[in-house]
Design goal:
Radius of gyration: 19 Å
Oligomer: single chain
Strand order of the largest sheet: 1-2
Strand content: under 5%
Number of helices: 11
Number of domains: 1
Number of strands: 2
Distance between the termini: 34 Å
Structural class: mainly alpha
Order of helices and strands: HHHHEEHHHHHHH
Amino acid sequence: LYLLILLLGMIFGLVFVLYNKALLVEEVSRVTPLFYLSPLFVLMLSTLFLGEHLPPKSYIGIGLMVLSAILVSFRWPERKSFAVSPALFMILFLDLLIACKDVIAKFLFSYIDYWTYLFWFVLGNIVIRPFLLFLPDIKIRFIADMKSLKPKIYLICFINSTLAWVGFVFYYDAVSRTYVSLVSAIPSTQPFFVFLFAIVLGVFYPELIKENIDEKSAVVIKGIAAVMVLAGTYLIVA
């Protein structure tokens, strides 16, 4: 079991590397809603393997979340035809990996305690990431960034990582206590807050973030998608 948890931690470490890669090729408020579609996969897997079931209204909520993802993953290029976001398939694959990880974690909580799981999972995260430096392209960019970054950027990265890990600890504590299909839906509210913060940063600090706020239609579409995610999440957990 411990080796399995260690492996899950290693996979999770690589998942967020790919997530950050998706952020480089697409706007943050498009990528994040797609990333939080993992509750769809969690629901299916937990029903099949854990016997968890949700009330009918929860499926309406899931439908809203799917529609919101479709809404933000398509964009109108200049040729006036639909084009799929380049981040779509990458993020959907990551969603499936995360869902498998969460369902396996819920299963393992029947045999081990929360803190034991957390220790081995975090250890897997820590162990795998330095191996990425063996890839030449990553190593070159990493060394260049380390030489050029200002101290305040290091501080921001440290704060960001700390907040992410605090959220991670609380998330798996919740998974150990109740249905994983319910817990996995809660983080889907994040696109709404990402959208708000991205708009604020795009207005006051446009050099810090890639976010299209010049066209009102783009802002409206993203706003509707964020509200749909919130409504869908409410129907799932209410």
